[in-house]
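Researcher: Please translate sequence to structure tokens.
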Amino acid sequence: MGHIVFAAPSIRRFHLHHRLRRDLLRRGHRVSILCTERTRFTFWREQVSDVDLIVPSPRDNHPDPRIAPLVNAAQPDEQRDLARLATPVLRWLEREQPDLVLFHEERSTTAACIQFAARTVGSRVLWTGPGLLPHTLQIDDRGLDADAKIRRWTAKDYRVVKPNQTLLQASLTHALSGSEPLALPRPGLRVPLLRRRIGDALSYALRGKFHAAMTAMHAWRTPFETDWAGSLRTPNLDLKAAFVCVLLQHEDDPRIVHDANAAPDAHALIARAVAAANTIAPDCEVVAVLPGRVTEAQMGVKQLAGRHAHRVRLAPLGCAAAIAATASVTITINHAMATVALLAGAPVVHLGRALYELPGVTTHTSLEDLPEAVRAAQTTNRPALRQRFLTFLLQHGHVWCSQTAANHNGMLGLVQAVEQCLLGDAECNTRPLPYRPGPTWPLAMQ
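Model: Translation complete:
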């Protein structure tokens, strides 16, 4: 069996990592945890035994020549810390010789450093992160969202994919219903010793990292925090009239930070969406879905589109799936819920890079060209390509496992994906797992 390393795992996803680690150990693998922050190391070594800490070392200002290309490509303000971290990471990986390095969710400079070092020593790499549909994980051996390998493919690469209509219909129903998986029991958690947490806080404070110092004392509580997604709601819309859906995102959304250059703010996007709506009908309304924990008052609804504000309505995040599925066009930077519009057969126009980006399936444009892009998206329809693309994306590019409420089938899929990357399909098929791609409901009813 293989040696698998969880690279820089967050405390927040402890329950997912802990269960995955336990299932991999049962399958005969060795699992290690590599931390690059003191707070995480303090937490994880209280939970499991095979944990190591690597921190930037002032003695390693000159990185190993094999790591130099990564350091030189980093931002100037990141190069010094990256140079001090890269060499210790490379030494640790050379000593441990892991077969697979697993990353989850966090697309950081530190993660990029570990990934580069892992490939340098010949270890395989696997990324998992929040999927495009609720309670799913995207999975790729290159990265998440715009960094994923699937984005390098073209329409002709999907000619061999047979559309799975049952999966696509079940996926749409799953998103619209807001169904929750029957989660497995959560493992127990041991609170790190107070003296160690105080030591971490002092260490951060002495280095001028005051925010990290303030959070070090209570970071162990984050696994109990819930991801706010908004309760599912049915919007009060006149479905007889055409309307445009705009999916808004927080400016600190990871997909905005990493995959959108100079992303427009909500006011600019909605104002331009009103102009784009005129290409559908003169009085076509715009329904903007707010990000989580944002109210209409905070968005300033009266100032959203100037004199066109009477044509703009705001909806909470819980309405996103229903609005995207029934809109004439969905406009976004790169919101994951645009996938629901694709499942419903509606055009999607996006301004940033996205995992679902594929010419013929979605339309990529700029803020200035948004009206013309919406007009073009109305006349461009390739349903066969869209169905083949979505089938591959949801059947092979995703695992139907929730990172907050993992169920039995989802964990089987995640373990299977890890073993396929580690062992290859041929050897993995000798130890098959009864995983079924798709949501628990409604596929479970068939």
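Researcher: Any highlights?
Model: The CA atoms of residues 94 and 188 lie 33 Å apart.
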